[in-house]
Amino acid sequence: YLVDKSPQESFGKLGEELFRRAEPHFRGLQYLRGISNTIIGISHYLRRHPAEKHLTETLNDLTKKMTDAFRKTDDSEWHWFEDFLTYDNAIQPLALLHSASITSNKEVFEIAFTSLKFLEELTFKSNYWNPVGNENWYFRDGKMSFYDQQAIETMAMVLMYGKAYEVTEDSQYLEKMFSVYQWFLGENSLSIPLYDPETKGCSDGLQRMGINKNQGAESVLAYLISHLTVLQNFKTKTASSNGEFTSNDSLLFK
Length: 254
Hints:
Blueprint: H1 2-5, H2 9-22, H3 32-48, H4 53-73, E1 84-85, H5 91-103, H6 106-123, E2 138-139, H7 151-168, H8 172-181, E3 195-196, E4 201-202, E5 205-207, E6 210-212, H9 217-241
Antiparallel strand pairs: 1-2, 3-4, 5-6
Helix pairs in contact: 3-4, 3-5, 4-5, 5-6, 5-7, 7-8, 7-9, 8-9
């Protein structure tokens, strides 16, 4: 991302150096979240350096690991990459959206949106978004945990919907992205904000009895990335078509 979006050349050069140090390890990755994050990183890099064909090959190899995992567990009722959902779940369909936006692979797009819809149906059963909790996660044929809900889960979902809107220009994904973002602001199962406007921090999770009042780096960054993603998409939508969210978008500017 730093290579692709750097505000200064020196930042971009630092990003390239870090990327090159990591590159020898890409093809050896086995775990899906590491693979997903790496696919996203390679996709950003290729937008800046599209001629590096060996990285396109690496992207295709890692994407195949994702699609193979999906085909192995997919059936008529379960459309996911594993037999369970744990943490940072939306990073997986997000990765495939990034990959397919580079390669234009229709099958990868199809799997991305199938898994996106599956995750959406699990977590939007109420009037607000309810992510998979980390007490016992959610295993196939089991019961989904609702607590503890984590900020990183919300960030991944916001990024996934932002990317889905980018590749489809379907405004439904903006509405869903904004609904997920409002989890931070109190649109959740306990109606308690996790974002603290006094400290500018974010609580570490939503628990059965309230919020985890610790404000760790992961949660704060998850909020900030989510906020900036929604704000960027809001401005892009408004500038391009004078479109408006039906939600209370003034919350973005507080």
